[in-house]
Amino acid sequence: MSFDFDKIVDRENTGSVKHKTIKKDGIYSQTDLADAKYGEDRVLQLWVADMDFPVAQPILDALHSKVDETIFGYYTPEQSFFDSVVDWCGRRYNWEIDKDWIKLSPGVVPALYIMMPQYTKPGDKVIVQRPIYPPFEGSVKAAGCEVTSNDLVYNKETNRYEMDFDDLEAKASDPDCTAAILCSPHNPVGRVWTREELTRFAEICMRNNVLIISDEIHCDLIYDGHKFIAMASLSEEIADKTITCMASSKTFNLAALKCSQIIISNEELRQKFTDAIANLGLYGINGFGPIATEAAYNHGEEWLDAVLKYVQENYLFVKDYFAEHLPQVNIVQPEGTYLLWVDFSGLGLAQTDLVDKLLGDAKVHFNDGVSFGEATGEGFMRINIASPRPLLKKALDRIIRVLA
Ligand SMILES: Cc1ncc(COP(=O)(O)O)c(C=O)c1O
Hints:
This protein is of the alpha/beta class. 39% of the residues lie in helices and 14% in strands. The protein folds into 2 domains: 17-56 and 301-403, Alpha-Beta Complex (Aspartate Aminotransferase, domain 1); 71-299, Type I PLP-dependent aspartate aminotransferase-like (Major domain) (Aspartate Aminotransferase, domain 2, 3-Layer(aba) Sandwich). It has helices at residues 57-68, 79-93, 108-119, 135-142, 165-172, 195-207, 236-240, 249-252, 267-279, 288-299, 301-325, 351-361, 374-377, 389-403, and strands at residues 44-45, 102-105, 125-128, 146-149, 153-155, 160-162, 177-183, 211-215, 242-247, 260-263, 330-331, 339-343, 364-365, 367-368, 380-384.
């Protein structure tokens, strides 16, 4: 089957967050940019992590059948949904899970906020690895805990980030440190952690009695030559101290359906999460989420393979483009995700000037690197390349005009 990912779908006025909000507090608003919104100068949105591609046909078919049922009463997923998750984990990650370990949440971020107070107490320290997806820190702070960052370290030779295990050991051995949130694969630096790295991370956490919360939402978006390994698949002992967050939402572009799987083999930890969900009155789930997830996991692989191929070609396209027109800019080597972590510091611009030029002058919207951690994000932008190539080219042409 062939897929036309080059086709540009107009997402304006569809409620798309990516195409609505200009997130530059106090500097730009949608109104400021309204004049420039249409025609040539319309802002090109390459920020929020969803794809500008229509979802796979089997998912659309499943959703259409659900709509055709015509009645949308209270919903609980059928066993076939749980079977599809179990099969997916077994088939793709060689991770044997039990249906009973799967809990549902209206998103991974809500799950982080819900679970954090269950597994920590106010004043505890929780490890994250900056530069990092901002809601990790939000969930820690909302629970009254303190963020302690085991900053990732850039390796110029390999053009990728690595973990600083000595620093991790030092932070984890603080008696106040009770949990660590791992981003695997990592947003924004695009690392797909190796078995050795995951094992070392887990050993340090276990030795220091630090709970591992492993956000694996990007786990299916893996570049050729790399292999995703689920943290909890490493050993039963590690699984016993790990909470895994997964979803079909990034993989199959279903974020609006608000459905994610929280997989917990440890009964006590699982019960705490179940109780927390119940105590919020979050009974039931939006019925469209599991329906779409089941169709995706059972029938979506061909589409996923095609998307992954297209995204990797997009990466090469962007890389070559910068190399030719703006060689001072360096793209950190991605191993997974459809997000590029791009170093603009070679241009010698202050961060606010860089954002002004990109968003204000070029009318291209990337995520500001500092939102992933001030010190670790200075000079960087995160570019979402899950977009039609003609649109990416247009964005690059614009920024070259402004920055070259
Ligand atoms: C690492 C990570 N976790 C979670 C999310 C969002 O999850 P959800 O939409 O299920 O709340 C994202 C979205 O970009 C992400 O990158």
